[in-house]
Amino acid sequence: MKIGVIGGGIIGLSSAHYLNKAGHHVTIIDQGDLTMGCSFGNAGMIVPSHIIPLAAPGMISKGIRWMFNSTSPFYVKPRLSGDLVKWGYHFYKSATKEHVAKSAPALKDLSLFSKAMYQQLANDLPFDFGYHERGLLMLYKTKETEHEEAEMATFANQHGLEAHVLSASEVQKLEPDVKVDVRGGIYFPGDAHITPQLLVIQLISYLKQQGVVFQTNTLVNDFIIEGDIIKSINTTAKDFEFDEVILATGSWSGGVAAKLGLSIPMQAGKGYSFTLPQVEKNVRVPSIFLEARVAVTPMGDSLRFGGTMEITGVDHSISMNRVKGIVDSIPNYYPEMKVIMPGIKDVWHGLRPCSPDGLPYIGKSSKIKNLTIATGHSMMGLSQGPGTGKLVSEIIVQEKTSVNLDAFNPQRF
Ligand SMILES: Cc1cc2nc3c(=O)[nH]c(=O)nc-3n(C[C@H](O)[C@H](O)[C@H](O)COP(=O)(O)OP(=O)(O)OC[C@H]3O[C@@H](n4cnc5c(N)ncnc54)[C@H](O)[C@@H]3O)c2cc1C
């Protein structure tokens, strides 16, 4: 079949990979040059441990407390926007214990499946993208967080995920080269990490060699629909016709879906990262500073710090105050690490595609027969990318999918 994938982030690229492997003719259309999306400078963590969706009890009160601090990790820009109000309403309705209980098994299955796909890719692809299985450390400094995280570890264990509560000295043993100042940590040995830009750049070249066509710097403007199929896609370059269309447009998906008459509530959750090159005494295990909500990932001899979640709409401005919040948190956890504030040109930003219930949208459209939706992976798109791509290829050939997709139904709002 001739298949058009709109969006060339990790979700679009992974879908293209598995569709190409299955023998289809694939074209990726992207408005940018594929280094502009969210899949490039993220923290690179592959985290099956993360089974609690963003919409969870306590998130709203925490969010409100953080809103009034300009260096805090979370911010919702107040705007007169119908989309934001609708999204906020669904978020509020989803932030319940019942939703967490229902979502955790679905997120776990998707993430474990995706990790298995990463293991296969690390073996099969003819290039190295820095895949390592060193687990994840969730580090805390306060008693309150310790209590919350111990509950989280129990919850993970109950769902069959290995999680160990470590004392400060046990944490330090895992980090022989960097002094760590924490009360303790939870260690998830089943997590992994990669260097995302190494994967994205090399996967693009590899897919080109395999015959995938890249139509970059091309904005999808509109669609011609005949009956219940997409007849053609109107872009700034030309019109395209495909047998099947995959919508993998990340944070932009709400607007693109609206042009198809579909409701896919989505908000962009902006985050920042910066990377220290050639760190002599580097961190070994990817870690999250829990109170500061900062992710730390070793990538070869460099070290990446990432964080913040600003619900600001599709907005590319950089708040150096929030970047300062990330920088200021570092000595609290790594007291001997000297990190100076990066210049604005060294700060990367990405827009996480956030659905209101914290679950991705994966599945066929019920209204448009030749459309498959794969978006809204929020904080876990890198983790769940290859798994989602493989599922898309299964959906297209109407195979039984490797993961039950009921929780990810794109028609749920
Ligand atoms: C600071 C930070 C750290 C993160 N860390 C992690 C992590 O450690 N682990 C993890 O799993 N996830 C992480 N994430 C989240 C992860 O990066 C995202 O979930 C993921 O990249 C989303 O991928 P995507 O393909 O859906 O979207 P994108 O990568 O944004 O791709 C969407 C593409 O669609 C294109 N597009 C949109 N509209 C149109 C249109 N109309 N026409 C043509 N093209 C269009 C865009 O140009 C873009 O290239 C992090 C995010 C941030 C910001």
Describe what is shown at a glance.
The protein has 413 residues and is an alpha/beta fold.
Molecular structure report:
With 413 residues, this protein is α/β, with parallel strands linked by helices. It has one domain: 3-Layer(bba) Sandwich (FAD/NAD(P)-binding domain), CATH 3.50.50.60. 33% of the residues lie in helices and 24% in strands. Strands 4, 5, 6, 7, 14, 15, 16, 17 and 18 form a nine-stranded mixed β-sheet that branches. A six-stranded mixed β-sheet has the order 9-2-1-13-20-19, with helices on both faces. Strand 11 (229-235) and strand 12 (239-240) form a beta hairpin. Helix 1 runs parallel beside helix 7 (196-209) and helix 4 (97-124) packs across helix 10. The chain is globular and about 65 Å long. The two termini are 30 Å apart. The model has no long low-confidence stretch (mean pLDDT 95). Bound molecules: flavin-adenine dinucleotide (FAD). Flavin-adenine dinucleotide is lined by residues 6-12, 29-32, 36-39, 42-45, 219-220, 248-252, 256, 271-273, 295, 306, 350, 352-353, 375, 377-383.
The fold-level CATH name is FAD/NAD(P)-binding domain
At CATH's second level, what is the architecture? 3-Layer(bba) Sandwich
Low-confidence stretches: none
Quaternary structure state of the chains depicted: single chain
| SSE ordering | EHEEHEHHEHEHEEHEEEEEHEEEEHEEEH
Question: How many discrete structural domains?
Answer: 1
Content of β-strand: 15-25%
How would you name the CATH homologous superfamily? FAD/NAD(P)-binding domain
Distance between the termini: 30 Å
* CATH class membership: Alpha Beta
| β-strand number | 20
Major beta sheet, specifics? 9 strands, mixed
- The average pLDDT is 95
Distinct bound molecules: flavin-adenine dinucleotide
Q: How much helicity do the residues have?
A: 25-40%
Helix/strand-derived category reads alpha/beta
